[in-house]
Amino acid sequence: MAAPSPALSDLRDYAYDWALVDVETSGLIARRDRVLSIAVVTIGRDGEQTGEFSTLLDPGCDPGPAHVHGLTAERLRGAPTFEQVADRIGALLRDRVLVAHNAQFDYDFLAHEFARARAYLPVSQRLCTLALNRQVDLPVEDMKLGTLAAHYGVPQGRAHDALEDTRVLAGIFRATLREAARLDLPLPLVPCPPRQDSRFAPKPPKTPCAYRNPGRLQPGGPLLQGMKTAITGETSTSRAELVARGAAAGLNMVSSVSRHTSVLVTNDSMSGSAKARRAVAEGVPVIDEPMFLRLLGDVRSGALHQAPAPEAAAPSPEAAAPAPEAAVPAPRRPERAETSSADRPLAGQRVLVLGGTHADAVAARTRVVELGGSAAVNLSCSVTDVVVLAGGEFDRRRRRIADLGLPLHDEHWLDAPTAAADPAAGTPDDEEAADRPPPPHVLPRGGVLDLPAPPSGTPAPLWHVTATWAPQDRCEIDVVAFVLDEDEQVTLDEDFVFYGAPENPAGTVRLLTDGPAEQTIAIDFASLPPASRKVVVAAAIDGEVTFGDVGAVQAAVAPGSGAAPLARATLDAATTERTLLLAELYRRGPVWRCRAVGQGYDHGLAELARGYSVDITD
């Protein structure tokens, strides 16, 4: 890629006023933890720095892991509170795009700090340099700040010092903008809603029901522990007391009705409420409040959720297979042992397909994966080849592809692909290839891969499933997650994670919005309760546009926000689908596995949610 890098002052499409931010915090949960230090560096539209501010802060609490950030209570004593500097920070952020490395983290912490100070966070857009660098897709081992600084030649100061990290970020940001301009990438700007009060904080944790759902209440029969019980309408006993008494008896008290609901409690079954209508449609039994109170006096024992064996350790991909009698299955890898390199001539290559009908493009991308390659959905630094189908010659990216010197092929090349590297480029390509990190595993549709356990004595990572697609101007795509039990149901209504509830109550599954064409589900497997056996990650389109119009969606699985992806899958729906299952992450004994799904449905998100016992109309 020998195209010259443009000067930052020439990047008119990227001409914004920027506020680069870094915070050091007492923990990782914004609704609970506090900001200990903050730095802001402002940059003008010409790329020149226009201001700088940093300060330590007195959080009024334990500063947390000092071995990470070096900020002890003694060092913070006498520093201002956030409330005392909120106006100055707000003035630096106002009318600028907030930029940070993992921007949602910094934005959420600032939103909560401004809310505590009874002030308004004056940010309407943010940009994540992690998301931008994922689009650029550099040949580096990970996307951590230090790794990117080394790649771009940015001098580094003390890590986890807010001001030093922000200065490093400024250098990385300028260099990344130049790379993005070479590739003609749109900036992943995220609109930010008002976050000026505490009602935006997630709800306090709710204790999951310990019992499996035994099914519906039988006529004249007793309540059983684990029954999903909903209440609607006016009641003589307070709603809070009914819910508390039901939960104490072992019932799973839920806030919506679905086909998995065991019973609906209402004193007016003809009220026309959404829950009552849904109960009638699904055939859910309905009882009144007096009957419910009588049945609460004799709730029968239920079956506990089955927990996986806690004593066995998950094997790493390099570990030898366990003995046949062991309970833990052998590690699953996407490659088949009997496949030779001759059968996978595109191994390590990344191929972008342009043009063609939807069916032709799907067939071409499927063939790329069959040949061992990775099918790209956008132009990036990792693309090695471009296949041009009918109409692809008019793609707006052709000029950039020509500037980058990428080899172009027609559809017949996939019948017998030759070496992907451009022979005219000579040996530098070989030297660059030697420095590149190992490519991610390529998961075909239905492919399964074990997620490796962390090394002994190290904390388990937060696994990230990131979905990426071509930028759209006709629709919005939402990534969602369902946390399911062994019966393929959500145990809590709140275990449906989506744009309206981006975090489940325990904070173990979160939605991260990194740009208009990229969203991530972050999962803390180590903290999931035993009842949680599977996390389903899906995407849904709002409106009449279908995934046939959108094209392929890429799903990447990585052990952390800045980590290199362990595996990638490029998933195509057929033509008319409006929802698409991307991945399932599920327990197999103590092992967590990832399966690339790629199953599409014509119905919308509401119908998909009902299949997992959630009614999102309530």
Topology:
Layout lengths: L17 E8 L9 E9 L5 E8 L9 H4 L3 H4 L5 H12 L3 E4 L2 H14 L8 E4 H8 L8 H8 L9 H22 L5 E3 L36 E4 L7 H10 L3 E2 L9 E3 L8 H9 L3 E2 L1 H8 L53 E5 L3 H13 L3 E3 L8 E4 L9 H7 L3 E2 L18 H8 L5 E2 L5 E3 L12 E7 L6 E9 L11 E2 L11 E7 L2 E6 L10 E9 L4 H4 L2 E6 L8 E5 L7 E10 L2 E11 L3 H7 L7
Parallel strand pairs: 1-4, 4-5, 7-8, 7-9, 9-10, 11-12, 11-13, 13-14, 15-24
Antiparallel strand pairs: 1-2, 2-3, 5-6, 16-26, 17-21, 17-23, 18-19, 18-22, 20-21, 22-25, 23-24, 25-26
Helix pairs in contact: 5-7, 6-7
Describe this structure in words.
The structure is a single chain. The chain is of the alpha/beta class and 618 residues long. The chain folds into four domains: 8-200, Ribonuclease H-like superfamily/Ribonuclease H (Nucleotidyltransferase, domain 5), CATH 3.30.420.10; 228-296, BRCT domain (Rossmann fold), CATH 3.40.50; 341-435, 3-Layer(aba) Sandwich (Rossmann fold), CATH 3.40.50; 443-611, sav2460 like domains (Lipoxygenase-1, Sandwich), CATH 2.60.60.30. It has 15 helices and 26 strands. Strand 20 and strand 21 (518-523) form a beta hairpin. The longest helix is centred in the first third of the chain and has 22 residues, at 162-183. It is globular.
